[in-house]
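Ticket 4471: requesting a sanity check on a complex prediction with 6-sulfanyluridine-5'-phosphate. Repro inputs:
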Amino acid sequence: MIEKGTNVALACDETKADVVLDLAEKLGPKICILKLHIDIIEDFTPEFPKQLRMLADKHNFLLFEDRKFADIGNTVQLQYEKGIYHIADWADIVNAHTVPGPGIIQGLKESAEKQSDPRGLILLAQMTPEGTLATGDYTKKSIEMAKQSPAFVNGFIGSSTISELTELRELAGEDFVIYTPGVKLAAGGDDLGQKYSTPQDVVAAGSDVIIVGRGIYQAEDPLVEAEKYREAGWDAIE
Ligand code: S5P
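Returned structure tokens:
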């Protein structure tokens, strides 16, 4: 982040491999992370994550597969390592819900340790949509779980609701990275409960990384828009 002067994670929710690769190549210099949902790619081939990995190394950003694991330890190991996606082979970071308890962290950690490159986990201590159940005691217990595995769990997904995000930062302390989705230059929401705050407001509330999806990739010129978010996010950090 410091080398590139950016705290923007691009939520690249496009469904065609070449569109994702094109955005990764063009926007690579502006972002610290490319977050994707591998299971929405309609023309997936094993070549796709390999090409993405090459672009991540070329432009010095991390790959974050937003898999939101949510099962028992044994099952998440299979989902992380096997199937058609082999996520553990190429994703620097994945995330998990804490609803199953600490076994999910242990399971993913054992799989991660088989890899030669470092792997990290983000816990969904909060979520952005209206009516989420990930609040209060759930958030507190998620943070406690992270503190049991601090070398592997690098941080949390935080809410885009400013009061909640502020509380998350207070509870988490300074040793964890907080990643906040639901970020747009103009606050608001969508028709399905997503809630947006601005880069300035989420960083002021304690967020480190701003996760931006439609605000960038649906813009007329995603490169121009990515630079606006980079500037807003990095000015706020500084
Ligand atoms: O609570 C959450 C957690 C995540 S990871 N709320 C979210 O919106 N996300 C993800 O962030 C979501 O899956 C999507 O990929 C991105 C937000 O996209 P946007 O288009 O609304 O900016």
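Notes from triage: DSSP finds ten helices and ten strands in the chain. Leaving this open until the requester confirms.
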